[in-house]
Specification:
CATH superfamily of the largest domain: Thiamin diphosphate (ThDP)-binding fold, Pyr/PP domains
Organism: Sinocyclocheilus rhinocerous
Number of helices: 19
Helix content: 25-40%
Mean pLDDT: 90
Strand content: 15-25%
EC number: 4.1.2.63
Structural class: alpha/beta
InterPro entries: DHS-like_NAD/FAD-binding_dom (IPR029035), HACL1-like (IPR045025), THDP-binding (IPR029061), Thiamin_PyroP_enz_cen_dom (IPR012000), Thiamin_PyroP_enz_TPP-bd_dom (IPR012001), TPP_enzyme_TPP-bd (IPR011766)
Radius of gyration: 25 Å
Shape: globular
Largest sheet: 6 strands, parallel
Keywords: Lyase, Magnesium, Metal-binding, Thiamine pyrophosphate
CATH class of the largest domain: Alpha Beta
Number of domains: 3
Strand order of the largest sheet: 13-12-14-15-19-18
CATH topology of the largest domain: Rossmann fold
Pfam families: TPP_enzyme_C, TPP_enzyme_M, TPP_enzyme_N
Number of strands: 22
Low-confidence stretches: 492-525
Length: about 525
Amino acid sequence: MDEVTGAQLVAEALKSQNVEYMFGIVGVPIIEVAMAAQAAGIKYVGMRNEQAVEACRLYSKFSARPSSLEMIPAVVEKAVRSSIYGRPGASYIDIAGDMVNAKIDRANVRFVSCCPAPPVSQADSREITQAVRLLRAAQRPLIIIGKGAAYARAEKEVRELVEVTGIPFLPTPMGKGILPDDHPNCVAAARSRALLQADVIVLLGARLNWILHFGFPPRFSPHVKIIQVDLCAEELSNNVRAASALLGDIGAVVRQLLETVRSWRFPSDSQWWLTLKEKMTANAQISKSLALRSTLPMNYYTAFHHISELLPKDCIIVSEGANTMDIGRTMLLNYLPRHRLDAGTFGTMGVGPGFAIAAAVLEQTQKSAQRVVCIEGDSAFGFSGMEVETMCRYKLPIIIIVINNNGIYSGVDPKTWKEMEKMGDMTTIAPPVTLLPEARYEQVMSAFGGRGYLVRTVEELRSALQESLNNTQMPSLLNVLIDPASDRKQQVLHTHTHTALHYSSISWNIINNLDKTLLSCIFSF
């Protein structure tokens, strides 16, 4: 009798679904599953942060508990299929601990082959006709490229749509790189004006959630017409009723649009383009003036300006934090699709090091020589900072850059902190957003054998980053001390009633893809 354990069945079922990597935290009985995975040819990466295994069950697309050992391969196949079909998402499989080491005759197991590739569907032709009619009549059209376009690998089709029609585009955080950020049609530098004044917006795999202000005034025109392209029927017309709802695969739907709209082009000398270019120029000048300031401590814009000058164009940028992520998104350009990962729709802090490790493992295996750069706010780094041990253990040459402003959004300098300490109990005196001034995060990396750098000046920043880029054998961490009072440049939003709204916003974003899809199946034992 050829016996097989539950752990072996899990590992073999994952292998049959073409899963190449497993990330986990071992302990009884997970040790057996990890060992079985390695025996099956799956690369296992041991992590450190176990904040939410159990919480994942509530937020997964699919969750199940196999009723018997015989059913494990079938449940794994359905979990994988559910995670990649339709809108992508995590799957959760709960396997009873006593099933891991239990044994069964292999002949009695219901083995399942690898699930087929996701089906590709097209939109209703009547909706395509309506969408083209709206575009042709638009005075101020705009294309918003979302992370759905990245997942659909629709960069070729999206580029053709933009360049054939001449319409300006705006990427969402995880849509950056579908077209390069320096593409002449990219109007990210005039984001607020583009959103507010557009009369027809094409949403390509982007949702009207809080990242896009729900599509509501005063950030959008109350009369804007939305052409929405999405793979998920339940997402269509959320928050704003779509004037044209195009349900289907983004690549396939964009090809449908191109077949009908190819003979039309939005004029490059229109008032709309002139308005956007004027705003882009003005905003670029403001950012440049902030970036070139020579005062110390540095501000966000100065730090990001010099980082951007040194980063390779093909690097994978992982980012999380509040101001660090928001400002970094505008200053650090992406040139390739699926080369940016950040905290996503739910603003989940702590994901950065994990994303960076997954990306680095993939790049290391493929020997692509692409660098992974993880840019963290000091608060965000605190959530999963111990993953630097994982990076050192596997010799993953990740570059972590901690933008340290001594707090969450803002902090205080060491002198002010000492004055507050003299005033009494810090639990009643210290502002809740403050962290310990000038914390030595780089020493965490040094403690595990990586390279740590304390950075205060532009010269130190450029030297440390260049050394880190040259070092392909171990991870590095740059602890960049900036002005605790540094903030985003002030933004002014002009509404249709010609009033001005000064605002400060918190922006957080997610996706889970690199140049190869990273599949997340979450297991609980």
